[in-house]
Specification:
Two copies of one chain form a homodimer.
Chain A lengths: L3 E6 L5 H14 L4 E6 L3 H5 L10 H8 L1 E4 L13 H8 L4 E7 L13 E7 L9 E3 L4 E9 H17 L4 E6 L7 H13 L6 E6 H10 L6 E4 L1 H15 L6 E5 L4 E5 L16 H13 L3 H16 L2 E2 L10 E2 L2 H9 L1
Parallel strand pairs in A: 1-2, 1-3, 3-12, 5-10, 8-9, 8-10, 13-14
Antiparallel strand pairs in A: 4-5, 4-11, 6-7, 11-12
The structure holds 3-isopropylmalic acid (2 copies).
Catalytic activity (chains A, B): D-threo-isocitrate + NADP(+) = 2-oxoglutarate + CO2 + NADPH
Protein name (chains A, B): Isocitrate dehydrogenase [NADP]
EC number (chains A, B): 1.1.1.42
């Protein structure tokens, strides 16, 4: 069986620790991948590359076709563009897929029935990064929505729902206020939805939709929404089902795919062997599925679930229900075992 | 004691029912107000006023200085501007104050300790309503943030916290992505915060902030944020503490104030005597406080709390813990009694 080259970014903060743990699990499970390290983030800035990327990185990435990425840090301040957003836009990763489910009773949650997949438009909206200072006192940011962008993400959501045996797709937007931009998204959802009569469909305003997601996540199945709303609600969905530390995500484009945890680089706990590799491991499982290595993916997923069931947790999840509170490395050992 | 003229909009959908119930309670409690009805919303559109307002309304409003408003409906479609937004902007109501607290054990909630006040900027952001179609395929909406707008709302939040014996103010924004717009809000918060050393202060990114609010509302006290974020998180805060049906809000400007429930006009249950007047009643209590009628405000608040404690609820809240499930009118009777 072919071994596939996969670009790997170890990232910043807790990134290197959780990436090392994740790669050890992948290797032990027999994933047929060949990690090709790329450098992006803090160390690259320090060398004077203000983009956060070295010039050769894009070639390596395009050669690989797939990137497994640990959290990276973009310096604060006006001069720096978010590396995450640059990656998503440069590589054309228009669909951000974020499954959030509860692992009750092994991970405490108030919402044991939750199992929702957020499908977030990943290139447009306020994330297009078009901001300007009009006067010293007035600043503006442009929210950009295109028909093509809406069609692509809405179709992706319906196809995803079908392929994964899901029953319902909910669109969230603020089309009662933003009648042109969110209105376009809403209209496209309704029009394309007509081609999927096998799937239940609904549209909700983002305010009450987010509130219902927070109180009744089990009533949602697949949610499709614009970039910024998706950013907010995926943290909500992940946190109420257990922890942002447990959710992975896929960033999908026509010719490239990037897989990452949904959490950040958590510099405050970096280097202490306490970070939870679960989110990145979930991302890696999604990556293996994307590469067609379904058996390895399932094997890792089952080993991870079994570890949770055994009550083995990193400190972020550990609690009264925990048999063993362990470090990042020891958690990986347990998954491998 | 002077009787103060208060403009009153009975609104659409469930509006007239909950307004009638609320005004009956105000009268029974001896509120020294004189309701001056204004017409705005559906019936006005039907007469051909495409703005949703009759020409004389603005004069009446400016004469009164205060508006108690039931939910109103803006027709769907590109031609109509939201009436709520028009009211807020025309009257200069820059601060939207939304207290959300739990009434456990009398109203079921997973978060019995929650007691948070959302202070939402109310005139700028994407709500400025500047949208345009660039091509048939590309639409844009302008997010507008001004230094003056940020200063005003941030200062309002700190002053509110002090005046109400609150301990902490949390600012939420996405300044890691929108470095100019949300960045300005963040900088203003930091700068003005320095003048309030007696108050604890923190800033969080809106994604994880909303998620934490959904899971740990009790860790928040006063939250200040931009318009759209405030729209979303106030529904989250209201819903997790019990119900959007129980939250009132104040829209405050330099020369005018408007008070309203945070929920919509719920046309599906209109005219059935089942709507909960609680949110509008809370708004009326805030209004009486604003008018300096603190004793009447407290009397109504206590009567309402006592009604909840007695297990008397409209059907939206009624459940196993309920002694009596009653209609809108009968709920008002119970509060009055
Ligand atoms: C780090 C940040 C740029 C990113 C985003 O806003 O998309 C993150 O919050 C996420 O959700 O992946
Ligand atoms: C009805 C709508 C215009 C309004 C808003 O978006 O502000 C509502 O959701 C609110 O929160 O008061």
């Amino acid at each position: 069986p072919t071994v596939i080259p996969v670009a790997v970014a170890h990232g910043d903060g807790i990134g290197p620790e959780i990436m090392t743990a994740t790669l050890r699990v992948l290797e032990a499970a027999g994933a047929r991948i060949h990690p090709v390290p790329i450098r992006v983030g803090e160390s690259v800035y320090r060398e004077g590359h203000t983009s956060g990327f070295t010039p050769d990185t894009w070639g390596t990435l395009r050669g690989a076709g797939v990137l497994l990425k640990a959290p990276i840090t973009t310096p604060q301040g006006g001069g720096y563009k978010s590396l995450n957003v640059t990656l998503r836009k440069t590589l054309g990763l228009y669909a951000n897929v974020r499954p959030c489910r509860s692992y009750a009773p092994f991970v405490p949650t108030l919402h044991p029935q939750a199992d929702v997949v957020i499908i977030r438009e990943n290139e447009e909206d306020l994330y297009a990064g078009i901001e300007h200072r009009q006067t010293r006192e007035v600043v503006q940011c442009l929210k950009l929505v295109t028909r093509q962008g809406c069609e692509r993400i809405v179709r992706y959501a319906f196809e995803y729902a079908r392929a994964h045996g899901r029953k319902k797709v909910t669109a969230l937007s603020k089309n009662n206020i933003m009648k042109l931009t969110d209105g376009l998204f809403h209209d496209v959802f309704r029009d394309i939805g007509a081609q999927y009569p096998d799937l239940e469909q609904e549209h909700q305003i983002i305010d009450i939709g987010t509130a219902r997601l927070a109180t009744h996540p089990e009533r949602y199945d697949v949610i499709v929404t614009l970039n910024l709303y998706g950013d907010i609600i995926s943290d909500v969905a992940a946190e109420i089902t257990g922890s942002v530390g447990l959710a992975g995500s896929a960033n999908i484009g026509p010719t490239f795919a990037m897989f990452e945890a949904i959490h950040g680089s958590a510099p405050d706990i970096a280097g202490q062997n306490v970070a939870n590799p679960g989110g990145l491991l979930q991302a890696a499982v999604m990556m293996l599925g994307h590469l067609g290595q379904h058996e390895v993916a399932e094997c890792i997923q089952n080993a991870w679930l079994r570890t949770l069931e055994d009550g083995v947790h990193t400190p972020d999840i550990a609690g009264e229900h925990t048999a063993q509170s362990v470090g990042t490395r020891e958690f990986a050992d347990a998954v491998i075992a």
